[in-house]
Structure formats: structure tokens, C-alpha cells
Write a structure and sequence with these properties.
503 residues; alpha/beta; 7-stranded mixed beta sheet; 6-stranded mixed beta sheet; 23 strands; binds nicotinamide-adenine-dinucleotide
């Protein structure tokens, strides 16, 4: 018998929570117990069309709302997110599995983007040029593009929706959100808070589902832009189909982030950073440090790293003292197990094997404890695949140049970090490394929102990054006005048929 009644997740259309008439539903499991806790609909085509109608109708007025109105709504949203931090974190821990403290971090990193969106009057300022010709001035506006949409992954149920809808709405667009079907609770709560903050009904709509909902978004001509964060193959599909249909697409995808350890680095600080960045959130972060590259003598730190990894507490996310929560699903865990197994067959060594971990009281959870693999080369499965679990792959090289060559050879370019006490080494690394988010003695260098999230290579498709200046560019288009205000009337009646040169 279930411990609690299973409830359904609703669509949000025109400011109202609407029970879906879906015929297909996803079971949402708590990852620690695998108990079904919610039913998530595959919104019907009629419901999704209604959501787009609602966005289209609201855009007529929202695009002309004053910038100060939109700014004050963002200030309200910041306040409400802070006030509801506990409820948001609880929802994330229940549906996604990460620890409560980590879930608060998930919300806070998204909140920072909303705080930045409070700066929308300055962010939307265009350019001006006076007297470009006699009595003629030119100026540009950043204007909204229409209906935008967001397709979210499971691993940051609050942060990623917050990378998307607040900035899009602050720019004067309306928005359709499709949260991950595996943990839509935080996105639903955020949408409710957005309405409480003053976002008018219909400006933000939420639909649910998997591939069908995504393909609806990609094919619906009234949707002008698609923001996607998720896995490699889905991101490629979204970019190809979306751009073919004439939409703007920003697609952030998979990663394999390398942490390069120089022997002169502060040993304690580096080990703390490595272990937290590899195993926190059960390794299910796109910026997790999943490969460590020991340069020269730093390889001697391996035993200490294993000791620290072993000491992490694996348990349900809501239990105080938990370091590593469950993985999102049995399928994700079994895939990680299989990659580890294959790598051992390929000759890798398991210094720490987290596959046998069980948690009393939560025997059915998707557990995998911290796992450390050494003796790895770049042809092995564990190096080639994004494992997205608590698995740290260790590679050893002799020199910084070898480390740089190794990292640059990797197809992904989301992030990297170097740990060193040498400014010259750090400078050389940052200058020569191809990955787009670089940490120097900083393990998970997700940029704050006055910059943008600048993953590169196979980790992104599209020209404009999420949030920051690039995010504003993505959600707006430029309108440039050339104006002539001349005193007195023209005296000669004669049309010029040559191209105006404005001189
Ligand atoms: P996913 O690709 O499985 O799901 C993401 C979204 O795509 C979901 O909303 C899902 O409903 C939809 N989807 C799933 N299958 C689909 C299909 N066949 N056709 C169309 N849509 C489909 O990703 P996930 O497992 O939820 O998230 C983990 C991935 O996200 C990892 O690869 C991680 O690296 C990546 N990620 C990247 C960043 C970044 O900024 N680069 C940030 C967070 C997560």
C-alpha cells in the first residue's frame, strides 16, 4: 500500500491549474524509496495548443508593459523565492533526491539569475548615435521576440527553469515551460510564485510530457525560441528540428569536466574541492568534476582522495548528515554500473567500488556510492561516456602540456578546473584550454549571472549562451530607428530615386 496518496501534476494554462485529460502518464518515483509519489501527464495536443493560444493572447499586451513594471515583478519574485526556499528545497529533495542543503543551492543559483533580471531596465538599453546625417539621429531598442519556450533536465529542477523564464519574461516575451517529467514540482511552485509576484495570467504557461511535448514545441510555428538544457542526443535533435523550423535555439548539453591537479596546489583544499565536485549531487551535475588529471607527483594524493570519498555518507536526501543522495532512476544507476563494469573489463582498476551500497530503510533506492577508477586511458568506456553518477575517473600524466592536450582532445567543453599555487601555470592553462567555464582553484565554476554560462564545443549548440548579456540577446531582437527632424519645410518638389546615403 502506498504511504501517501498519489496526486497528479497539473498543467498551468492562462493562469489556472488545469487537470490534464491525458491518456498517457509518467509515474514520478521518489529516488530514495522508488515509491510512486506523483503522476505527471503527457499534456494533450489540445492542451498544449491552448497554452500557446494563451501565450499569444497575453503577448499582445505584455510586450507593451513598462520596463519598470517588469522590474518590480522580478523584485517581487526574488522576495517570494527566498520566502519559499524551504518548500522549494523539499520538493527538489523529494522528487530529484539531492540533499536538502544541495537543493537550496539549486534554488539559490537560479535565484541569482532572477536577481540579475531585476536589472532589466539597464540590460534592455539600446544604442544611440546623434546627427548621423544633417538633422538625423539613429537609435536602437531591444524588443521581445514573442513566445519563447524552455525544456528542462531533471538534475536542477529549480536552477534551470530560473535560467530561462524570468529573463525571457522580463524582456517582454511570453513563455511556455516544459519541466522535466521526472521532477516538475519545483517548476510548478516557481510558476505559482511568478503569478503571486505579478506575472499576468497567460504570460507563463506550463505543459508536461516527454518527446511528444518537446516535438510539439519544436513544430509549433508561433513559438519563436527554444531554450534547452539536457542530454547530448536530445539536444542535437532539438537544435536540428528547431532551427529547421526557423526558431532560435540555445541547447546546452552533456559534459566531461576535467580537474587538473598540480603538485604545488594546496593539498587539503584541493582534495576537499575534488571530492565535493565529483560526488556531490551523486555526480549528477553538468559541471561535476568527473575526471581528475594528476600531473606528476600529485598522484600520491590518490589514497587520501579514496579515504575521503569512502567517508561520505550515502543516504536519502532529507536525512541530516547525508553527503550523497540516490541517483534519479534505476535505469540511470544500472547504466553507471554497466560503464564501470565495462571499464574494468577494459583494464581499469577500481580503487573504490560504490556499486554494492545499500541504505537501511531505503533498500529499493537507486544507490551508488562514491566510485574511484584508476589506470584509465582515453579509449575506455568510463572516459568516453558522460556517466552522470558518483564516479571519479583518474588519469595520470607527467606534465602540464600533456594535461592540456588531453583535456583539449575531449569532445566536450563545458567546464574544467586547475588546482595550483602558480599564477604562471594557471595563466597558461586558462589561455590554452578550450573548455568554456574555467576554474582556478575553484571546482564548479558556474559563472554568476552578470556573465553567461559559457560551455563550448560539443556541450552547446546555438550562438547565444544562457543568462547574462548573451541571454538578453537571445530573448530579444534589435529594432533600429533612423529619424529626421528638420526645422522648416522642404522648398523644392523633387523625389530622389537613388539609394539614400544619409550624407
Ligand atoms: P534528457 O535529455 O533526458 O531530458 C531533458 C529534456 O528532454 C526533458 O524535458 C525530457 O522530457 C526531454 N526529452 C527526453 N527524451 C527526449 C526525446 N527523445 N525527444 C525529445 N525530448 C526528449 O536530460 P536529463 O537526463 O534530464 O538531464 C541530464 C543531462 O543534462 C546531462 O547530460 C547533463 O550534462 C545535461 N545538463 C547540461 C547542462 C549544461 O548547462 N550544459 C546543465 C544541466 C544538465
Amino acid at each position: 500500500m502506498p504511504l501517501r496518496q498519489v496526486t497528479t501534476v497539473k498543467n498551468l494554462i492562462g493562469g489556472k491549474l488545469v487537470e490534464s485529460k491525458a491518456t498517457n502518464w509518467f509515474d514520478l518515483h521518489n529516488p530514495a524509496s522508488n515509491e510512486v509519489i506523483f503522476k505527471v501527464p503527457c499534456s494533450t495536443t489540445a492542451e498544449m495548443k491552448e497554452a500557446v493560444d494563451s501565450c499569444a493572447e497575453s503577448f499582445k499586451t505584455w510586450q507593451h508593459s513598462t520596463i519598470m513594471t517588469r522590474q518590480s515583478i522580478m523584485f517581487n519574485l526574488v522576495r517570494l523565492i527566498r520566502a519559499n526556499m524551504g518548500e522549494l528545497a523539499k520538493s527538489i529533495t523529494t522528487e530529484q533526491g539531492k540533499t536538502l542543503a544541495d537543493a537550496e543551492g539549486d534554488v539559490l543559483r537560479g535565484l541569482q539569475v532572477v536577481e540579475h533580471a531585476c536589472n532589466i531596465p539597464s540590460l534592455l538599453m539600446g544604442e544611440t548615435a546623434q546627427t548621423i546625417a544633417q538633422d538625423m539621429d539613429a537609435y536602437s531598442f531591444r524588443t521581445p521576440i514573442g513566445i519563447c519556450s524552455g525544456i528542462c533536465p531533471f538534475n536542477f529542477p529549480a536552477m534551470i527553469p530560473l535560467w530561462m523564464f524570468p529573463l525571457a519574461i522580463a524582456c517582454g516575451n511570453t513563455f511556455i515551460m516544459k519541466p522535466s517529467e521526472r521532477d516538475p514540482g519545483a517548476a510548478m511552485l516557481l510558476a505559482k510564485l511568478a503569478h503571486e509576484a505579478g506575472v499576468p495570467a497567460g504570460v507563463l504557461n506550463v505543459i508536461h510530457g516527454g518527446a511528444d511535448a518537446v516535438n510539439f514545441i519544436l513544430d509549433e510555428p508561433r513559438i519563436k525560441a527554444v531554450s534547452f538544457v539536457g542530454s547530448d542526443h536530445v539536444g542535437h535533435h532539438i537544435w536540428e528540428r528547431g532551427t529547421k523550423n526557423g526558431k532560435r535555439v540555445q541547447s546546452n548539453m552533456g559534459a566531461k569536466n576535467h580537474g587538473v591537479i598540480m603538485a604545488d596546489a594546496n593539498r587539503t583544499a584541493t582534495l576537499n574541492a575534488l571530492v565535493g565536485a565529483a560526488f556531490g549531487a551523486a555526480g549528477q551535475r553538468c559541471m561535476a568534476l568527473s575526471v581528475v588529471v594528476f600531473v606528476g607527483e600529485s598522484r600520491q594524493w590518490l589514497p587520501d582522495l579514496v579515504t575521503m570519498a569512502k567517508s561520505l555518507k550515502v543516504n536519502a536526501g532529507h536525512i541530516p548528515g547525508t553527503d550523497v543522495g540516490p541517483m534519479i532512476s534505476p535505469k540511470a544507476r544500472d547504466r553507471a554500473f554497466a560503464i564501470v563494469e565495462k571499464s574494468v573489463q577494459q583494464g581499469a582498476k577500481l580503487l573504490l567500488d560504490g556499486r554494492g551500497v545499500t541504505v537501511p530503510g531505503y533498500e529499493k533506492g537507486n544507490w551508488m556510492g562514491p566510485t574511484v577508477i584508476t589506470g584509465v586511458n582515453t579509449d575506455m568506456e568510463c572516459y568516453k561516456e558522460e556517466i552522470f553518477g558518483p564516479v571519479l575517473v583518474c588519469v595520470e600524466v607527467e606534465t602540464l602540456d600533456e594535461a592540456i592536450a588531453l583535456v583539449n582532445k575531449n569532445q566536450w567543453g563545458n567546464g574544467t578546473a586547475i588546482f595550483t599555487a602558480s599564477g604562471a601555470v594557471a595563466r597558461k592553462y586558462t589561455a590554452q584550454i578550450e573548455a568554456g567555464n574555467v576554474g582556478i582553484n575553484v571546482p564548479i565554476p558556474v559563472p554568476l549571472p552578470f556573465f553567461s554560462f559559457t560551455g563550448n564545443k560539443r556541450s552547446i549548440l546555438g550562438d547565444l549562451n544562457f543568462y547574462g548579456k548573451a541571454g538578453v540577446q537571445f530573448y530579444t531582437q534589435l529594432k533600429t530607428v533612423t529619424s529626421l527632424w528638420r526645422e522648416g519645410d522642404a522648398t523644392v518638389l523633387k523625389a530622389a530615386t537613388v539609394m539614400p546615403t544619409m550624407r
